[in-house]
Fold these 2 entries.
Entry 1:
Amino acid sequence: MSGFYRVLPQPVMSLLILGLWLILAPAPTLGQVLIGLILAIALPWATRGFWPDRPRLTNIGAALRLLAVFLADVIMANLVVARQILGPVGRLRPAFLEVPLDLRDPFVATLLGSIVSLTPGTVSAEIDRERWVLQVHVLHLEDSAEAVALIKARYEAPLRKVFRC
Amino acid sequence: MLMEILVSLLILVGGAFALLGSVGLARLPDFFMRLHGPTKATTLGVGSVVLAALVHGGLGEEGGGLRELAITLFLFITAPVTAHLLSKAALAERRRQERTQKQS
């Protein structure tokens, strides 16, 4: 088993790379499959130093539920931002917000940061991995405690369920 | 006919959101606020255009629409990473300015 992970440190990523290569290739010929295979083995191997540990996707159901919530929120986010951009800009109250994290996995923290960036009113500015705080910029802040609680309940809790961390 | 209307609508919506992102970039007053427009609007903007291509080409197209799916995936990965790096750089720059102001 350990030998398997030495050749393929990120099996899921390898599969993704191979799949994406074949999708992007003009035609799935033998040569393209070979190039895809080489990339699928070489890329995770070359970047293995940047992946300190393997967070495991353990709860597919929770992942799908989070994906559905996320996609709906992306559409909402666009409508909200559109209204704010076209509305009276001077009335917006931008602010930085610190979200204390319960999760302790750098990969999942990055994922949370990305989700926050694409969902209503917030862009993640920095992930502090010493204090485990996510710094978020809010375009229009009304209640900071409420905003923090929303991010934690809506995205962090499900993410922790998905990766069990 | 119905398909053509749907495709046109999706392209229009996509174009509108892409435009909105740029308008936000121009109208909003400071760097961090400006980040919000392009980060969000482009995802739905390009997302709609890709969806239009998917409806137009249908599943009969070579690749079966998987290529459009890959474009969406790349976009959703790269947009927040770009925003994150930009704001990280801006934060560092602001701290540096604050330090030099204190010193002078």
Note: The mean pLDDT of chain A is 83.
Entry 2:
Amino acid sequence: MIYKRERISRRMGRISFTGLLVFLLLYSLPLEIVAEETKGSREMPSVMVLNPAAELWRDVRQREGGNIGISQVRGVDSGVLINANGDRWRKFRMEQLIPIGGSILVGVFVLLGIFYMVRGKVPIEGGQSDRKLFRYSTYERMIHWFVASIFLFLAITGLILLFGRPVLIPLMGKEAFSVLASACKEGHNLMGPLFLVAVVLIFVRFVRRNIYQKGDLSWLLRGGGIIGNKHVPSNFFNMGEKSMFWLLILVGSLIIASGLVLVFPLFGQGREWMELAHVAHALGALLMIVVIMGHIYIGSVGMEGALEGMTTGYCDLNWAKEHHDHWATEVVERGEDVSNEAVERLRRNEPPSSVQLHLQEHGK
Amino acid sequence: MIGEFIDGPLWNFALTVFVIGVIWRIGSILLSGVRNDLAEPKGSAGSGAFRALFSRFVPERTVTKRGKLQLIAGYAFHLGLFALLFFAQPHIDFFAQRITGFSWPAMPYWAFIVSAELAFAGLIFLWLYRLLNPVTRLLSDLDDHVGSILVFLVMLSGCLALAQSFEVLRLLHLLLAELLLIYFPFSKLMHAFTFVMSRGYTGATMGRKGVNA
């Protein structure tokens, strides 16, 4: 009886074990297949699953441009969330305009210093004469100094705005610079339109005398006489002065137009126009500053007698003969040269002889 | 500390000097009296004074011809400055808060900018003319230049503080305005008030004589 029970028990155990094995086999078989499939899938090309967020951000980024959205906000570019060109402009400003522009300005300043050390102040070879020629009227000198003062103010404030971050923040700190930058920005914007007035006045008054004429090219080919020791004859204005005049008019117009685009965003100009205007404004202004540095150099320390015409209105006869020979000859032939004494009296704030005489008579 | 001083005691001091100084100067002119004219009047002194006061705003033809630039620059500067002083929003707010207790309509922003441009251009031109023309240079003394420079600096500091974002810039503008107020009664800037008496006196004298001048 016991033997029979043992046999039944062993049989049940064998069945149970076999069932367990079958179960394990059946259970493990699909896992193995899935594992094999997974191994195989690593070697197969991936299945593209579209991410709606990626599409959204691609549209927002607008690398290709032209994909402008709709916004409740009314205004130019209000449908553009991210202006991809802005990054390009920022990189140009930070990585090219500021370092290269700054290097050019410093380089020109150093070059002028070296030139001065080598060449020195160009003297009037014949020395100061006892005769003067009338060169600029009061009105002409007024508009010259008007454009000069406005240009200098705009140049200084503009350079502070352009180079302030790398140059001035390390020296004065962010807080002080923020005050200075705000002041410069407001001053620059307010004085800017006056430069337009100044350039128009300069153009109207001086255009006739700045039209290129015979002899100008030979002046240019001979380096204007500043290189070497020979003076080159020229007219009322030489080729260099005429070129500076046209540069002021043309580049000045570019600076003014781009400045107006930047200051008055009232004409529907978008960010891209503003970026373009900023680049044109900065490049034009840097070019003009470099040219004006040369102009100031000649007028101040570079050449004897060059500034006199713009301060008193009269220039020395010998200076005129050396630098503006054709014009000087014409004026002398017309008998319009005046004595040095009469002009010196004006310079010393003394009344001219006729006024003095009149005052004396009145006193009696 | 300095800001509180500029905003408080210095402002009160400058305003007091300005008011007392102007009253004193005008009073001294009025109290100096006029010479007794015993001649029989041939016209009305009052109407002559009134006519001269306003007719002098229109310049003589010869002046218009010879001094066109000074005329335009003069009007541009004075009108621009007047508009800025009394019709710029920040100034109206300041007057209402510190002096009058009430405000009045301000000019729009574009008019403010135009006024500032006119005032700056006019002042720079007039000062350059003063420096460069031999006659005006001869006639000008230190007072003329100090007055011009102070007015220019007040205008410039005002335009630099236009953003109204920095207290330092407002205080700088106020400090310069206070210096101008203190300087004003002792200088030729008094012509802002005395032109009325000057024209009135001339007009009355001529009117009494029956001269249309």
Note: Confidence is low (pLDDT under 50) at residues 30-35, 351-364 of chain A.
